[in-house]
Design a protein that fits this description.
The complex is a heterodimer of chains A (667) and B (100). Chain A is an alpha+beta fold and 667 residues long. Chain A contains 15 helices and 23 strands. With 100 residues, chain B is an alpha/beta fold. Chain B contains 3 helices and 5 strands. A 5-stranded mixed sheet of chain B has the order 1-2-3-4-5. Chain B is globular and about 30 Å long. The chains are: A alpha+beta (667), B alpha/beta (100). Chain A binds chain B through residues 541, 544, 559, 562, 565-566, 569-570, 573, 616-617, 619, 621-622, 624-625, 628-629, 631-632, 635-636, 661, and chain B through 21-23, 49-50, 52-54, 56-57, 60-61, 64, 81, 84-85, 87-90, 94.
């Protein structure tokens, strides 16, 4: 503020400058006019003085004046009267161009030198000029001569005096040689007076100008600048004043622009106050709404099952994040007493409160149906019919429902227009069967059960389209492809905590973007129990190390492991040697619990290894081939059994922890 | 598996270190083809923690060759788990098996 240069100071200075310039111009123009008029005045003065001098001089004979006549005195009086310098009468001598003074009067400006040297009888040689001659020759008009020399600037008027009054005869007598009257004025002194006058005028004008300027500046300051400063101050302190509730109206004086401005300011503060009031009201309302939505969100989340459940045989993880406070996504699961596990994910059309209301009904219904219905198909049909019955808004819901049976690992599922879930097994399997239309639209719609297998170590992954259709800041989709890549990457590592793994990647992808749809994920992970392992290998000898690694990891004694090494080697080598012409698949299941159960299955040629076991006492040492391995295996196994089922050779072996070498028996 | 052979007079000592199983028995087979003119063979299984039928077969085959040339064959320093396998198959009755 301190550096502010008032616009009125600038305007004042500018106005002053303009006034000065204009005034100077006027003075310059006036000077000439004044000078000219002054000059004309001088001319008139000397002409009139000359005329009066001529009339006066006609009273006496200039060449022979009477004793009593004091012409010089009379002429001096006329000088005084007309304020001229000299008034004289001369006798011109045309031939010699000289003149002889007959009489002379002096004005107050006359030089002392002239007073001393010029008087009657003085003859001045060669000074007779053309104007005097013209006057001598009878020009009575008065001849004006402007003589400018380096030291003198004079204006002279010459006039002839042709006669005199003969007092005795009372008549005019014409001179033989007319006298010439000259009235002279010194312009120097006139000019000096003029300049002094002009200076006075200029000084006066300048003073008046300054005075006007100051008055104008004061006027500007008090009438405009100060009120503007007041308004400006009020404007800048408006917010703080408002906070202190001390906003006062500006006083309105007069009816000028400033009054208009003050009135506008008052109107503005009124409107701002009203506007802020409105905003306050809206904000309060919004807070209330937000609080209510928060409660609604808690209620909605409360309808869902916990987001993690650990069970002896399985682990369930779930994640929901609505795009708004409340959303239309849901997941559900239910572990029944018989060990079966229902899981579901669903997505109501739309978002926000309407979707949330519909979701609340759907999730409650679904959770109930999981208890009363036995298959996903039945659940979905009942779910659909119930939703259709009371659905004035015409909303619909995509849903996936599945049930898993622990004994067989069988997964039965049905899909009502929902995103295709995945099973993470050795590979990523898409559950693309049993697809029907979204629920809530067509009453009586039929759905079908589809089957898959969820083995120990496998994970079922459900999700809603908020995942694959999540957008990043550039508007790109997360995509099913990226989801599948992430899931595939999880196969070898962390299948038990899928939602959090996917969520991390999703958050990386969507960083900086607004979430545009509800996001829901659910994973059902079947645990590998008690050192339980299933190997699916090619019938090649080099796979033996894989089997041995699996045995090493079993939670059993080192002695039992050695027994298992031997049995596994003998049986696996047998299968490699005889079951297939080309290497084929061998499935080996190892289950450690009370002892170890070892199961070999292959789709090779049917062969019962338990038949015709070698009698060791008749072992042909000479041709030591065949049967020795099988003999060893069944000698060290506590129980064994073979069956051929569904095109598979299946050999069950059981090994107890107690030393089993000498007491092998039939299973 | 590593195999070292040491000839002392007319007795060849074959020391085995490692598992004697389906994978390694072909190597054992190759190593004992040449007996360096020895008459008797001592098989030192001090370094063998595990033997399968494939290893047994090679052991028996070596025993037969030594017997055929009229030499003596014995297995020494047999670990308990390995001894079980020899006992189970009755080979301990065919040739001398010692744990020292």
């Amino acid at each position: 503020m301190s550096k502010m240069k008032s616009i009125f100071v600038k305007i004042g200075l500018l106005v002053l400058l303009i006034l000065l310039v204009m005034e100077s111009a006027v003075l310059v123009l006036n000077y000439k006019t004044l000078y000219d008029s002054n000059y004309a005045d001088c001319e008139a003065d000397i002409r009139n003085a000359a005329k009066m001098a001529v009339e006066t001089c006609e009273a006496v004979n200039l060449y022979d004046p009477p004793e009593h006549a004091d012409t010089d005195k009379v002429l001096s009086d006329i000088c005084e009267m007309f304020n001229i310098t000299y008034l004289f009468a001369v006798e011109p001598d045309i031939r010699t161009r000289s003149e002889t003074y007959l009489a002379i009067g002096f004005g107050k400006d006359a030089l002392q030198e002239a007073k001393a040297n010029r008087h009657r009888g003085v003859r001045v040689e060669g000074m007779l000029n053309e104007q005097q001659i013209e006057a001598y020759n009878g020009n009575k008009e008065g001849i004006i001569l402007h003589e400018v020399s380096t030291f003198d600037d004079t204006l002279v008027c010459y006039m002839p005096c042709t006669r005199y009054l003969d007092a005795a005869n009372r008549k005019y007598i014409t001179y033989e040689k007319p006298a010439v009257i000259g009235a002279e004025i010194s312009l120097d002194s006139v000019n000096q007076t003029f300049v002094e006058r002009f200076q006075k005028i200029a000084l006066l004008t300048l003073s008046m100008t300054l005075l006007i300027a100051v008055a104008f500046a004061l006027l500007l300051y008090f009438k405009i600048s100060k009120p503007i400063r007041v308004i400006s101050g009020r404007m800048s302190s408006f917010v703080s004043e408002r906070e202190n509730k001390k906003v006062e109206k500006l006083e309105i004086k007069g009816n000028d622009e400033l009054a208009l401005m003050a009135r506008s300011f008052n109107t503005m503060t009124d409107e701002i106050n009203r506007y802020i009031g409105d905003i306050d009201a809206l904000t309060r309302e919004k807070h209330t709404q937000e609080a209510e939505l928060n409660i609604a969100r808690r209620i909605q989340m409360g309808l869902l099952q916990p987001d993690r459940t650990e069970h002896e045989a399985l682990g369930i993880r779930a994640y929901v994040r609505p795009a708004k406070d409340v959303g239309g996504d849901l997941y559900d699961y239910r572990i029944l007493d018989d060990g079966r596990v229902f899981v579901a994910a669903a997505d109501v059309s739309g978002k926000g409160i309407s979707a949330a209301l519909f979701m609340s009904r759907a999730v409650t219904l679904l959770h109930q149906l999981m208890l009363t219905q036995s298959s996903p198909q039945e659940i979905m049909e009942m779910f659909n019919d119930t939703l259709c019955a009371k659905n004035p808004g015409g909303m619909f819901i995509t849903a996936f429902v599945a049930v898993w049976e622990p004994e067989t690992g069988k997964l039965t599922y049905t899909n009502a227009g929902h995103n295709l879930p995945y099973i993470l097994s050795d590979t990523l399997i898409t559950l693309d069967q049993g697809h029907g239309v979204a629920a809530g639209l067509f009453e009586g719609e039929r759905y079908e059960n589809a089957c898959a297998t969820l083995r120990e170590g496998d994970t079922l992954f459900l999700y809603t389209d908020g995942v694959n259709e999540a957008k990043n800041a550039d508007g790109g989709f997360y995509s099913t492809k990226r989801l599948e890549d992430q899931l595939t990457a999880c196969i070898g590592s962390d299948k038990a905590e899928l939602p959090s793994v996917i969520l991390s990647d999703l958050n990386r992808f969507t960083e900086g973007a607004e979430q545009n749809d509800d996001i829901t994920m659910l994973s059902l992970h079947i645990k590998e129990r008690g050192g339980e392992k299933t190997l699916r290998l090619l019938s090649e000898l080099k796979q033996l190390e894989v089997i041995r690694d699996a045995i090493r990891q079993l939670p059993v004694s080192e002695n039992l492991k050695k027994t298992l090494f031997l049995a596994a080697e003998e049986i696996f080598v047998n299968i490699c040697s005889y079951a297939y012409d080309e290497p084929g698949e061998v499935e080996i299941r190892l289950r450690a619990g009370d002892g170890v159960k070892l199961t070999f299955s292959d789709r090779g040629k049917p062969f019962d290894p338990t038949a015709e076991i070698l009698d060791i006492d008749e072992y042909d040492h000479e041709n030591a081939i065949g049967g020795l391995g099988r003999f060893l295996t069944f000698s060290i196994a506590d129980r064994y059994r073979y069956e051929y089922r569904d095109g598979k050779n299946i050999l069950y072996l059981y090994f107890s922890e107690v030393n089993q070498h000498d007491n092998h028996k039939e299973a | 598996m590593t195999i070292t052979k040491k000839l002392d007079g007319d007795t060849l000592t074959v020391s085995v270190d490692g598992w004697l199983d389906t994978m390694t028995s072909p190597q054992f087979h190759d190593e004992v083809q040449e007996l360096s003119g020895a008459k008797n063979v001592v098989l030192d299984l001090g370094g063998v923690a595990y033997i399968s039928s494939a290893g047994l077969r090679e052991t028996v085959a070596l025993f037969r060759r030594v017997s055929a040339q009229g030499g003596s064959f014995s297995v020494r320093r047999v670990a308990p788990g390995v001894l079980d396998v020899f006992t189970l198959t009755g080979f301990d009755r065919k040739f001398e098996i010692r744990t020292d």
